[in-house]
Amino acid sequence: MLLTLAGFAVMGYHPGLEDDGVYLSAVKSDLDPALYPHDSEFFRLQTQATLFDKFIAGFVRLTRVPVPWAEMLWQLLSLYTILWAAHSIAQKLFPEEHARWAGVALLAAMFTLPVAGTALYLADQHLHPRNVAIALILLAIDRTLASRNWQTFGLLLAAMAVHPIMAAFGVSFCFILGLVVRDSIYIRLASFRPRRPHARLAAALPLTWIFEPPTPAWRRALNTRTYYFLYQWTWYEWLGAIGPLVLFWILWRWMSSKERPAGALLARFALALVVYGAFQQCVAMVLLAPEALVRVTPLQPMRYLHLEYVLLVLIAGGLLGRHLLGRISWRWALFFIAAGGGMSLSQKVLLPASEHLELPGRGSRNAWVQAFEWIRQNTPADAYFALDPGYLDIPGEDCHSFRALAERSQLADAIKDAAVVTQVPELAPRWTVQVDAQAGFSRFQPADFQRLNEQFGVDWVLLSNPPPARLTCLWHNYELSVCRIPALPAASVR
Question: pTM for the full model?
Fold first, then answer.
């Protein structure tokens, strides 16, 4: 629990950040269907494959805990379960107690470690189904090591209901691990030598949508996510992908050469990670190479690295505790300061205009979050807003979602909604029309806002302060203004 709280304090807490614009909006829509009457498709369609939002909404209804507190409670519970499962795994891999706790402590400190070129952290700074899924997957790995296969199956099934893509990687690793811990399979793998490869293809997937030609609008949205494209990764991102594979191979060779029973399971665990990483890397390279399979790109097969990085940090911490930290107090103090302090500082640099811990009931110094708060409390539930489609990248905004925090509909944005479009291609035409209609938003005049009103029904705007003349503005702070779109005579519109 102490390490959970320490990890939470180091990583920070930012509800409504980035992907939470999808999931938090879905939770709030489940609780109040009157919200988002104009744009719910931009989160509702993507969340059809998960029960996450429905579970959180059900928890709020059952317990009467307000959404902000419920989200933080489940964030803490997810982090705690990740560390608890990691400690249980470490108990099986490391006989020394100080090595186990060093592994768990390093994982807690490194929650916001970036995962190669995947645009992922080990854990998100807000409640995300990926946090819940990785906790369940780590529990499944622990049960696999204990040969409790039915428990493994149940945990992976629960992870599948929360985050199907991450659960698929968990299934892959648990299957490989279950084979490797068996003596007969391990002996065969340990003595394996690569032979001439056969040109054998995997069985065809019964997913005809994969081979459907992409539309220009969908391809435009896809091109906004550069990290989707493996063959466009930089050399250091490739190093981040291949490096863990090499490190696990070295660990396997090192531990298997030691005639010590204590290292036997760690050697097998490292070999399982080598096999898992090599297999998934080959799958990703095959799927992401041909243009004919471009529709597979949003499935992001390189995200297999997420689980690999979590286990890499856990094992690295365990080895550090075994060979360096030992039971010497001052070394542990330096370890905590270096790991936790460095990661905390990086998050403060990444989100400079926001509190490090955006806790429920605490006022925000972020001008954008202040505007979202006023909008949520002072505009009707069916209000339809326009704001700069690139607002998430504006300095000082810090990637906070308007939709999730203001609880109001908005015209499509060019950044986060583009990611949703890659997952839900049928939204591409609507997204393109709305983003194009807002081109040059920072230079808009009342006639331009009237055009948005006539074209989409938008009746409110969030603008930089001071706003253009002739707008009815009801609130402002030092940076932003919230205004009604005026009902101009038709003859005055150009």
Answer: 0.89
- Cβ-contact 180, 271 below 8 angstroms: yes
Indicate the residue among 307, 325, 350 that finishes a domain. 350
Give dist(CA 216, CA 42) in Å, integer. Answer: 19
Q: How far apart are CA 374 and CA 356, in angstroms?
A: 21
Do 317 and 390 share a domain, yes or no?
Answer: no
Per the structure, the complete domain to which residue 312 belongs is given by 2-194+202-350
What are the distances in angstroms from CA 38 to CA 44, 294, 322, 384, 410? 12, 30, 57, 7, 8
Residues 381 and 333 in one domain: no
Q: What is the pLDDT of residue 202?
A: 37
Answer yes or no: are the C-beta atoms of 93 and 327 closer than 8 Å: no
**And the tokens for 367?**
């001008």
**Percentage with pLDDT > 70 across the chain:** 91
User: Is residue 148 domain-resident?
Assistant: yes
Residue 183 lies in a domain: yes
CB neighbour list of residue 234: distance below 8 Å, 6 or more residues apart: 117
**Phi, psi angles (nearest 5°) of residue 39:** -145, 20
- Tens of pLDDT along 397-407? 999 999 999 99
One-letter amino acid of 398: D
SS3 122: coil
Q: Where do the H-state alpha helices sit in 215-290?
A: 216-222, 235-256, 264-287
Mode of pairing for the β-strands spanning 384-386 and 460-464? parallel
Overall residue count recorded for the chain in this entry: 494
User: Residue 187 in contact with residue 175, Cβ under 8 Å?
Assistant: no
